[in-house]
Amino acid sequence: MRLKLPPQLTKLVTMIFALTLIAISINLFYAPHEVAPGGATGIAILVQAAFNIPTAVTTLAVNALMLILAWWLLDKQTARRILAGSLLLPALLAIIPEQMVVKDRLLAVIAGSAIFALGVALNYRINASSGGTTVPPMIMQKYWRVKPAVGLLIVDMIVTLFNIPVAGFEAFILATFAIVLTSLTMSVLETGWDRKKIVYIMSPLALPAIKQTLRDQTDHGLTVHHVTGGYSGKAQEMLMVVVEQSDFQSLVDRVQAVDPQAFILAAAAVEVHGGTLN
Known about the structure:
Transmembrane segments: 12-31, 51-74, 81-100, 106-126, 146-165, 171-189
Oligomer: single chain
Subcellular location: Cell membrane
InterPro entries: DUF2179, N-reg_PII/ATP_PRibTrfase_C, UPF0750_membrane, YitT
Strand order of the largest sheet: 2-3-1-4
Structural class: alpha+beta
Domain DUF2179: 220-274
Keywords: Cell membrane, Membrane, Transmembrane, Transmembrane helix
């Protein structure tokens, strides 16, 4: 018999695990090499490198300030949502000992970025947050209509620039690399490797032949949309096919073999669930 935890307890356990991963990435990979890739923990790494103040203390101070700003400039619900993560992360940073487990700086940044991204992605899955510098982008969005992703990039790059006077230009390059690598890793973790393409096909003269070719020569799911021309007002059909990345060019070749002038539009399908469309 499987033990099923209450949803709130499951969320708490997941958040603690996610924050533990973030703390591990900081104390075992980033901080020992004095590489600060943005965020409240990045500020903490810089402060520790410059003034020898533990990362847990600075992270707690920054998170406390961000909680006050969230309560004042955003709303109480947002402050409550980030409260647990804002307190738990500094505690975990204090519990997990800081030590250099990888001597090579680049390898440490690569490993740290992967672990950090996994922790952040898990937090996103349960709509949790570690607080810190996730607050300024929300403030920028509310008052200046700056997109959160842009606001977060601005904040992270400002923090990252301080690597230069504190730890040198190499640390700045590694920190920038860490931000990019973390973003890419999170993208893969959130959407997976199994990406597909949605292909839309229109042909005023040869669509029935294209449809027959795809039915006879492939096992791709096929859906027919009835559409209307925006200028002509003429009703016509459009095919929609979902294919693996590796099958995309083969599909294009088959369509163009029937009608070289066929209109083909392809878009990335981030997630596909369920059966085929026939």
